[in-house]
Design goal:
Two copies of one chain form a homodimer. Chain A folds into two domains: 221 residues, TIM Barrel (Alpha-Beta Barrel), CATH 3.20.20.10; 118 residues, D-serine dehydratase-like domain (Lyase, Ornithine Decarboxylase, Chain A, domain 1, Beta Barrel), CATH 2.40.37. Helices cover 31% and strands 26% of the residues of chain A. The two termini of chain A are 29 Å apart. Chain A has twelve helices and 22 strands. In chain A, strands 1, 11, 12, 15, 18, 19, 20, 21 and 22 form a nine-stranded mixed sheet that branches. In chain A, strands 2, 3, 4, 5, 6, 7, 8, 9 and 10 form a nine-stranded parallel sheet that branches. Chain A is of the alpha/beta class and 367 residues long. In chain A, strand 13 and strand 14 form a beta hairpin.
């Protein structure tokens, strides 16, 4: 820690491993499998911690990520974004080496895949259970049945099931509402599956995945796989939702203090939008913050302090509002640690992690 | 263009070169020098276009950038962030090779620099003219005089002048107000310089730099150097301010359409917060947008369409709201081009540029 001179993405590896094992334990001894989303950490080395916990299949959100993790021995990867039809050649190249599963929500996509995929491929139909990003609305049974039939009838395509991301869990006020949205999403998929089976479709898996929903739930009846990602690190957004506790947040940005302005009650740190990202979070429905300071010891960091908030970010500078008693203890050139609002976006901005004991962990470079 | 399969940062090199020459022309034949901020493009190759326009000295916002541009032959670099005292060794290493100019706004920083710098170094005092990020308030004459004296009396340090970033130009409603803030900032520095000279300080340069202020002004009387950066690319933020025109925006993100939802009036593109950044912009003081679509021909892109806006971003997905007549023309797998809200942050997220004629331009990699 004391050797750090510039903004550094610090990773508490023990916390991350505990987060992985906690999620893996939920599905142990059940028919549910954990297919974690690796977009959060984007690191082969962190990926191996999941393998240590028994994980065998993963989720990614770009072909670059799929290739990067395939190169580290992952052989069952779901690309959980509606398939980008311009990448068919790239998909075919990777699908010759590993099992690459794709996502569709339209006949146009299935037509193109049926014509151009050269490997037998599992195809998920993306369902919109209320988030309104991608997918067919959950109640459009006929449309889903038709699409499943179209997939089944295509030579190289195998209809595997229905998949959703109930991302509207992120907009809830607390864990009870998250649980309600999660339960509702699962029910909608289970009802739709029943309709699909009734219509003559032979089998249909159910896949769901968002960190808030999977964090508040202990069991996943009726679900075949869960795909949370952010839980490996958590962050202020998840803390605000009440789906993790402060001791579970596993990444922070360590950065030097470059300005102290006691009259304004502010300090300036070398840590800007190119380190934390501009993802903001409304605390108490008033101020938007971009990070919170935490006290740090050699054993890691403690509880973030709502009165010590990053209130503004430019490209390389962050403005931190501090109470007078804290500002008087800060020295120019000292280090502070900031918990990010959204760990996925913060991790994406760094090219490596540093662990608490000073080890470097590499990440995917080009995107 | 047609070969693009994944989100790509497109650069209209002719527009960028014209932007550079337009700014360089403003100071030609005057005693003002242009010391552009290179944080926007972070590219040695783009940097050479500035050299072609007669630029000999630059501004950066991190030691990593200073080292990267020094490696391409830049020998006069100002690190325009209050000096990070943890980086003294790194500063000394680079300052042995080039002229590296530093920024301070406190006695504590000058003390440390006086004790540890091993090369004669030009030191600017950072002045706060109303932006309230870093610097000594412009009316604290005595404090500035004391600091200038302290610098002058330190063996290795040379007081070069007073420097500001009037970043509050970004919060103005239009170009007239930008001009007013710019003029006020210049006046505040000139008055302060007069006080410094009256107090016995031998000489004092005046440095100012923000793209809005430097874009609306044609002349810079009383100013020794200007340090704008964003003008090389411009973006929606500058367009909204009215300090550039649509034909001057030189970067856009080209991305594939992966979902079409006519009933919602929305399409989904593979272009998310890891491509555009989460910098939002309120258009007409109502909706926050993260980018606007522009029509593209082989000659480049046209005027952005306020009715075709990126209204939501997740990590890899963008939701674009489109009028019905446009949505009916979009095909799955087609490409759209998005102008970014803040080109500095968007460029920071990509590892290279692609020019309109398909050439790759590399950027700084590690931060």
């Amino acid at each position: 820690m004391n050797m750090i001179t510039a903004p550094t993405l610090l990773l508490d590896a023990d916390r991350a491993r505990r987060n992985i094992h906690r999620m893996a334990a939920k599905i142990q001894g059940t028919p549910v499998s954990l297919r974690p989303h690796f977009k959060t950490h984007q690191s082969q080395q962190v990926g191996r911690w999941f393998r240590d916990a028994g994980v065998q299949a993963i989720t990614v959100s770009s072909m670059a990520m799929a290739e990067y993790f395939a190169a580290d021995g992952w052989t069952d990867i779901t690309l959980a974004v509606p398939v980008n039809l311009r990448e068919i050649d790239r998909i075919n190249r990777l699908a010759r080496k590993i099992k690459l599963n794709l996502l569709v929500d339209s006949k146009a996509a299935v037509d193109k895949l049926a014509d151009h995929l050269d490997q037998p491929t599992d195809i998920w139909i993306k369902i919109d259970v209320g988030y309104h990003r991608c997918g067919i609305m959950w109640y459009k049974t006929e449309q889903v049945v038709d699409l499943a039939d179209q997939i089944t009838n295509a030579e190289k395509l195998n209809f595997i099931g229905i998949l959703t991301h109930a991302g509207h869990t992120y907009h809830q006020p607390g864990p009870e509402e998250v649980q309600r949205i999660h339960d509702e999403a699962v029910l909608r998929l289970i009802d739709l599956k029943k309709d699909l089976l009734d219509s003559g479709i032979e089998s249909c898996a159910v896949s769901i995945g968002d960190t808030p929903g999977c964090s508040v739930s202990d069991k996943f009846p009726g679900v075949d796989e869960i795909r949370p990602g952010n839980f490996v690190f958590y962050d202020l957004m998840q803390l605000r939702l009440g789906v993790c506790n402060p001791q579970e947040v596993a990444v922070g940005v360590v950065c030097p203090v470059i300005g102290i302005y006691p009259k304004r009650g502010e300090i300036i740190v070398h840590c800007g939008a190119v380190h934390l990202s501009k993802e903001g979070l409304k605390l108490n429905n008033t101020t938007t913050v971009f990070g919170l300071l935490v006290p740090v010891t050699d054993e890691g960091w403690g509880i973030p302090d709502q009165s010590a908030a990053v209130i503004s970010l430019s490209q390389e500078h962050g403005i931190v509002r501090l109470p007078a008693e804290m500002i008087n203890k800060v020295e120019l050139g000292s280090l502070v640690t900031i918990l990010p609002v959204h760990s996925c976006l913060t991790a994406n901005l760094f090219d490596k992690y540093q662990t608490l004991d000073g080890k470097m962990i590499s990440k995917m470079q080009s995107k």
